[in-house]
Every structure is written in structure tokens, then in C-alpha cells.
Amino acid sequence: MKLAFIGDNDLPSVEWDSRFAVANGFEGLEYNYWGNFKDLTLETVRQMRAIHDKYGAHACALGIWGWNHLAPDPAERAEAHAMIDRAIEYAQVLGVDHLILGGGEIPEAPLEQKVEEFLKVFPPIIEKIEKLGIVPAFYAVHGNSFFTTIEAYEAVWEHLPNVYMKFDPANWCHRGHDYLKIMRDHSDKIGYMHIKEHVYMDDELVSQPAAGMGDIEWGKVMAFLYEADFRGYLSCEPHGPKWSRAPLREKMLLLSKKYLSPFLLG
Q1: Is the pLDDT of residue 15 over 90?
Q2: pLDDT bucket at 266, cuts 50 / 70 / 90
Q3: Rounded to an integer, what distance in angstroms lies between the CA atom of residue 23 and that of residue 257?
């Protein structure tokens, strides 16, 4: 397993994060975009890659979030698919290992219809990504993705076993799902991991600090990853109003790395 973290997207931050990652032993940087992905230019992506090369940093993942790849409206779907094509191009320039996507959504439709449409739309997309040596990973529980339950993934796996999850225990926990049970049963389907901590008090989320400082049972999480022979990235996600920005962001990354390092074999 390798440690990474989610970087900020503006070029000065790309430079700071690249320097910080290399200096502190993080092996990957992840970049995520929502609707603003349509404004990201190829020239900017080339500049990002040049910064990585300057410091010896590596972009391990690119994610595009919120685009509805199953949208019933043809124009909306076409725009979402154009963003996938753009993401594939940019992923090659960055040299990433993973491309993170949503599964798409059909509002008010039964799960069976969503799965059927996913099986029509995504096999050629997945094949195209995999032929480039990039692993697609599908995020869950938010952002125009019908993967809101493990049953949705299971329905797809019956037909496409090579669909991998981008897994975030804290996200599943926050939505009321038993993330450890999911990991016990399906860690072999995890292609990419987010490391995000949650602290709950009086049934409310009150903090998202460094790993090991909250309620997520990371020892058990790591046990299930080892049982599945997971060898991918553990990407730390600075999140929330306090720990996602200075001065706590840097501490969050360093403390998370310190906490997780004893679980890693090197």
C-alpha cells in the first residue's frame, strides 16, 4: 500500500503540495473536480505535470464528480460523456494510476433500470480506460452516482466484476451503512481508498481530524485490506472547515501518515 493525499487544484498549491509530498514520503497526489472540470484546460494540466516532474512527485488519481453519465436528458448526458473523454485525456497527461468517476443517476427510477443503463453505457468506457493502464474506480453515496448502497454495486458485479469502488469508510458510516461489513464482504472490489476521519458527538458530525483521532476503526479497516491483498493507494482527504485548510491541513496530513505508517509494510 502507498500513501497519498488530495491536493488543491490551483497551480501555486500544486507546487506546494508536490514539494510537501516528496519531502514527507507521500507517494501520490490526487486531484478532484466537480462542475469546474469543464473549465480546466489542457495547458493547465501540462503545467501541473511539469510541476510534478520538477519535484519528482506523482499524480496517482484524477476524479470528476457530480456529472450525470446516465442522465435521461440527452444534452446533459452528452456533456457528461464529453467530460469523461476530457478526463481520460488529462489522466494520460498527468500519468495517473486511477480515474475516479460516478456511476450516474436516473432520478426516481428503480435500481434495476439504473443497473441496466449503466451496463449499456459504461463497458466501452471502462475498456477504454483500462487499455491505457488506468484503473477506473466508482465513488459512492453522493454526487450523481446511483451507487448509494452496496446492493447497487452487487447488482452491477453480477455482470461486470471488474467495476471497482473508490471506498471511503467515513462516507459510508455517515450515511448509516456498516462500512466494516462491506469491507469484510467486498474488500476485493476496492480499487482506491480515501482516508477521512469523523468524530461524532450527540449523533452529530463535529470534527474531521487526522486518522486515528475519531470514530473510524482503522485497525479493522486495514485488516480487511490486507485480507484482500490490497496494494493500492490510501489517499488522505483533508476535509471540513478546520482540517482542510491552514494551519491544520499540514498537521492533518503528517499526523495521518504517522498514524497509518505502522500498518504498512513499506
Answers
A1: yes
A2: low
A3: 13
Could you tell me if 224 and 263 are in contact, meaning their C-beta atoms sit under 8 angstroms apart?
Answer: no
Question: Torsions phi, psi of 72, nearest 5?
Answer: -60, -30
| 160, three cell numbers | 461486470
Q: What is the pTM of this model?
A: 0.96
Amino acid type, 198: H
- Strand ranges (E), 65-107: 98-101
- Are 49 and 93 within 8 A, CB to CB? yes
Please give the Cα distance from 84 to 255 (Å, whole number): 34
Number of Cβ atoms within 10 Å of the Cβ of 182: 21
Residue 63 CB neighbour total at 10 angstroms = 26
Query: Is the peptide bond between 247 and the residue preceding it cis, with omega within 30 degrees of 0?
Result: yes
Question: What Å distances lie between residue 10 and 59, 110, 175, 215, 243, CA to CA?
Answer: 14, 40, 31, 32, 19
CA 132 distance to own-chain centroid: 19
